[in-house]
Amino acid sequence: MILAAGRGERLRPLTDATPKPLLQVRGEPLIERHVAALARAGMQRIVVNLAWLGSQISDYLGDGSRFGVSIVYSDEQPRALETAGGIFRALPLLAPGPFAVVNADIYTDFPFAALEIGADRDAHLVLVPNPPQHPQGDFGLEAGHALPAAAARYTFSGIGVYRNGLFDGCTDGVFPLKPLLLRAMANQRCSAQLYTGAWDDVGTPDRLRLLNG
User: Fold this and answer.
1) Total number of domains constituting the chain
2) Rounded to two decimals, what is the model's pTM?
C-alpha cells in the first residue's frame, strides 16, 4: 500500500494544485518511483489511498499496467483518514497476510524485496538515522525489537510491514498509527530494522529543492 492521501500543508503552495505524491524529484514523480520499486520487488498488487486531489493521482497511475502491476484505489473523500485510518479503510482491498506500506512523500532506495515480518509480530518498522529536522527520533531499536524509548532513538522511515491483527478493535474513521504501534511494542509484537541507505522526507519546499540539486 502507498499512502498518498495527505494534503501536504508544509509543501504549500506547491501542493495547492498538485498532490504531494506527484511532485517530482529528479524528473520523476515520487509515487511513480515507489510503484516502480515495488514492481521490481515482485509486489504485483498495490493499493493507493486518495483524498486531496486524488483524481490526479489515479489519472496518472491508471490501473498500473504500464508498470507491470495492478493498482486499486481506496478513496477517503471528503478528508484523509490519517495513517492508521487510511490503512484500516483499505484492509478489504489488501491481500490476506502481511502487507507492506510506504509513505508516498519519501525519497529512498530501500530494497522492498528485503522486507519481512516474523510470525509472532504484528508490525515491522524500517528505521533510519535521525535527519536534521527530526533529531529526537521516534523509536528505539534493541536486538531487533522496536521500543518506545531507548538510549539510541531513530526515525520511522514511513516504510513498514503490518498484519491485520495490528488493527484489532479499530473502527472506520480518522486515527493515527503511533498508538497502535505502541500497543504492539508493549506486547513485544513489533520488530524493526535500521536502514542507512538513501532516505529523505520530502516535507518542505526547501527539502524538495535540495533533493533536486
Assistant:
1) 1
2) 0.94
